[in-house]
């Protein structure tokens, strides 16, 4: 389905007409077509599609992204329509819309709709895998030490119950390069290894892992792979037909800028007979693996359709371009931070080892105080990491940021490094 057809479906609502879809979020103009060489003016027009106040520079995409006005409008319009007439007859079209989102997800990830489950978030997707694969005492699961709890604690807890063994591949800093990790996994594989589960791009310091190479290594040895894509879905121009994982997970509310509590789980056809569904209820999806794995009961279908609108929005701008832009913003931040005395950057500046999650330690400054000052005094949103393990500030820029946001952020950090907080 192309964008126009999807827009038409959203607009006409299938069998029954929508009732007065009136709400719009004010913005200077609609999204312009992407020029052949997008400049700052174009990216400012992209920024204008978001409802955040102009003075707020959000650098926290790795945690939660704002939805664009078209996504909010879609969600509001469809929710209103549903609540004005919650009959089965009126809601029938929402089931069609949910399947259209599945198609858009498949196009986005370059796979087929039959392999896509629309979940509630990455946490749920990861847990559907760790619960659904049958593992017995003595089997081994290889993880990276820097996995999110939904892909780390989850395996450890299930290991206690089922008796399998979990091992961590260490994650040194600075990033030691792709070959190091392929080698590290190769050395830790044993005849008992059944699953390799790792994070494509870590949320801690933004280390990029060689997903395609690790998946190939595992496949050659009959080992299943789960790639946690929470930090790459909607940021990188991910091609699962090339990466070939068995499972890939992601959330709508992060880099895709979609609604909250929507997510994706891709299950490779070759792995579909090797995993059990965990939740059985009414209202599954209509095609492929969603018929058995997506019966989660009543869903928020307007939000699922707004998820499709978010994917369409990014596709319209250009997914490769969004990745390029986020990388450029990150490189500009790195260049600025490098010049500030006392700043220690944890993230590799090498574009083959990182993308757009940037962590640094601001000398001896208290990171919570710094983050609060940045937010309250400078209107800059970021994340903090406490403790002893690579502590500091995390900046994760996305396509709604401008170079002016970057300059402002570097200047503010420089000021606090000089004067304290
Ligand atoms: C790598 C990684 N995996 C999983 C998650 C969980 O995402 P969610 O809270 O959307 O389920 C996160 C959240 O930050 C993450 O960074």
Low-confidence stretches: 9-20
- Give the C-alpha Rg: 22 Å
Number of helices: 14
The average pLDDT score comes to: 95
User: What spatial order of strands do you see in the largest sheet?
Assistant: 2-8-7-6-5-3-4
Structural class: alpha/beta
> What percentage of amino acids are in beta strands?
5-15%
Shape: globular
Biggest sheet layout: 7 strands, mixed
Q: Could you walk me through the main structural features you see in this protein, from its secondary elements to its overall organization?
A:
- The chain has about 425 residues and is an alpha/beta fold.
- Helices cover about 40% and strands about 15% of the residues.
- The protein has 14 helices and 13 strands.
- It has helices at about 5-10, 40-45, 70-85, 90-110, 120-130, 155-160, 180-190, 210-220, 240-245, 290-295, 300-315, 320-340, 365-380, 405-420, and strands spanning about 55-60, 115-120, 140-145, 165-170, 195-200, 225-230, 245-250, 265, 345, 360, 380, 385, 390-395.
- Helix 1 (about 5-10) runs antiparallel to helix 11 and helix 4 runs parallel beside helix 11 (about 300-315).
- The longest helix is centred in the first third of the chain and has 22 residues, at about 90-110.
- Pyridoxal-5'-phosphate binds near residues 199, 203, 228, 230 and 231.
- Pyridoxal-5'-phosphate binds near residues 121, 148 and 231.
């Amino acid at each position: 389905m192309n964008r126009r057809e999807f827009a038409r479906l959203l607009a006409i609502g299938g069998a029954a007409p929508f009732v007065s879809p009136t709400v719009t979020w004010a913005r200077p103009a609609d999204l312009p077509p992407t020029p052949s060489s997008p400049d700052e003016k174009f990216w400012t027009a992209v920024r204008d599609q978001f409802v955040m106040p102009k003075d707020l520079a959000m650098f926290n995409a790795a945690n939660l992204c704002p939805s664009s006005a078209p996504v909010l409008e879609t969600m509001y319009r469809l929710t209103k329509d549903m609540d004005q007439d919650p009959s089965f007859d009126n809601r029938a079209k929402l089931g069609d819309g949910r399947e259209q989102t599945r198609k858009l997800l498949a196009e986005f990830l370059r796979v087929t709709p039959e392999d896509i489950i629309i979940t509630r978030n990455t946490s749920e997707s990861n847990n559907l895998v760790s619960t659904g694969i049958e593992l017995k005492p003595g089997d081994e699961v290889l993880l990276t030490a820097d996995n999110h709890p939904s892909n780390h604690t989850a395996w450890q807890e299930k290991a206690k119950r089922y008796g399998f063994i979990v091992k961590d591949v260490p994650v040194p800093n600075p990033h030691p390069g792709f070959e190091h990790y392929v080698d590290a996994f190769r050395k830790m594989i044993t005849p008992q290894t059944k699953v390799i589960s790792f994070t494509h791009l870590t949320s801690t310091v933004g280390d990029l892992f060689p997903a395609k190479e690790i998946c190939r290594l595992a496949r050659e040895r009959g080992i299943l792979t789960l790639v946690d894509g929470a930090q790459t879905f909607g940021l990188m121009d991910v091609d699962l037909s090339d990466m070939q994982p068995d499972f890939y997970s992601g959330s709508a509310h992060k880099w895709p800028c979609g609604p909250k509590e929507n997510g994706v789980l891709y299950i490779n056809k070759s792995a579909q007979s090797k995993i059990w569904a965990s939740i059985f209820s009414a209202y599954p999806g209509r095609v492929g693996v969603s018929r058995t794995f997506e019966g989660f009961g009543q869903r928020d279908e307007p939000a699922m359709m707004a998820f499709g609108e978010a994917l369409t929005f990014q596709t319209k701008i250009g997914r490769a371009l969004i990745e390029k832009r986020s990388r450029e913003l990150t490189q500009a931040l790195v260049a600025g931070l490098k010049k500030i005395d006392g700043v220690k950057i944890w993230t590799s500046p090498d574009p083959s080892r990182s993308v757009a999650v940037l962590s640094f330690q601001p000398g001896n400054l208290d990171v919570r105080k710094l983050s609060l000052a940045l937010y309250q005094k400078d209107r800059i949103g970021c994340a903090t990491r406490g403790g002893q393990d690579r502590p500091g500030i995390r900046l994760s820029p996305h396509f709604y940021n401008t170079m002016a946001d970057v300059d402002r952020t570097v200047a503010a950090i420089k000021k606090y490094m000089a004067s304290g907080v």
